[in-house]
Each structure stands twice: as structure tokens, then as C-alpha cells.
């Protein structure tokens, strides 16, 4: 639980972002960099990236965020900033898999952990494989 001036909250969201056309564009190094970028974006929103993992074609961030944050704005920022940096830093690799200035699919999954214990969600994310 976290507290603010007039609020006590525990808001966690499990997100899934898929690469455009579900292309296998991510390497292990890119996943590590993506986690760093998303951690920085979360800090800007006074949120916390609790867990992160992924595979070649998708990522699973688990974010603890305050109630003042509009989830859609957080998601848009996570996707926009990570796309911009990953395309810039891994341009030659990314261009082989993706084109048209897109990195992530326009859609995403967002699920609150609801009644499931947070440890179960974390365990699920940890079991997602990173490419070698």
C-alpha cells in the first residue's frame, strides 16, 4: 500500500505490448534496454516498474501507479518513448523487421491483478523467456 496526501492505494497493472505485425524484432539486449527506458518513463509518472520480462515479439511490464495517473497516458508514453529510443539505438536491426516508423502494435493488453496475488502475476511474468 502507498499513501498520498488524501489517498491510500495499491494499483498494479500488468501490461503486454506486442511488436508491430508480431515480428520477432527484440533481442535480449533490446529487452534489457527497453526495461531501462520503461523504468525511466514510470519514474516520470511517479509510478514504479515492479517487474519486466518479454520475448522477441512482446514485453510484459508490471507497473504500480498512483491514482492521479491516467493509465492510457502512461501506456502511450511507455510505448512512444521506448519505440523512439529502440528504433534510434538499434536502427539497423529494427529496420530488418519493422518499417513505416512503427515499433509497437497499436493495441495493448492491460489487466489489473484483481483477486490474484501479486506474487502469482510476478511469477507468470518471470516465466516469460528472454531470447538468448
From TrEMBL:
<dbReference type="InterPro" id="IPR036515">
    <property type="entry name" value="Transposase_17_sf"/>
</dbReference>
<dbReference type="Pfam" id="PF01797">
    <property type="entry name" value="Y1_Tnp"/>
</dbReference>
<dbReference type="InterPro" id="IPR002686">
    <property type="entry name" value="Transposase_17"/>
</dbReference>
<protein>
    <submittedName>
        <fullName>IS200/IS605 family transposase</fullName>
    </submittedName>
</protein>
<feature type="domain" description="Transposase IS200-like">
    <location>
        <begin position="8"/>
        <end position="128"/>
    </location>
</feature>
Amino acid at each position: 500500500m502507498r499513501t498520498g496526501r488524501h489517498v491510500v492505494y495499491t494499483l498494479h497493472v500488468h501490461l503486454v505490448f506486442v511488436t508491430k505485425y508480431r515480428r520477432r524484432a527484440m533481442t535480449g539486449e533490446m529487452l534489457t534496454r527497453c526495461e531501462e527506458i520503461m523504468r525511466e518513463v514510470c519514474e516520470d509518472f511517479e509510478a514504479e516498474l515492479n517487474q519486466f520480462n518479454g520475448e522477441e515479439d512482446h514485453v510484459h511490464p508490471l507497473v504500480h501507479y498512483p491514482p492521479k495517473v491516467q493509465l492510457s497516458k502512461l501506456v502511450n508514453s511507455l510505448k512512444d518513448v521506448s519505440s523512439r529510443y529502440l528504433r534510434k539505438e538499434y536502427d539497423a536491426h529494427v529496420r530488418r523487421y519493422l518499417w513505416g516508423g512503427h515499433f509497437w502494435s497499436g493495441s495493448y493488453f492491460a489487466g489489473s491483478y484483481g483477486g490474484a496475488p501479486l506474487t502469482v502475476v510476478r511469477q507468470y511474468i518471470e516465466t516469460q523467456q528472454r531470447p538468448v
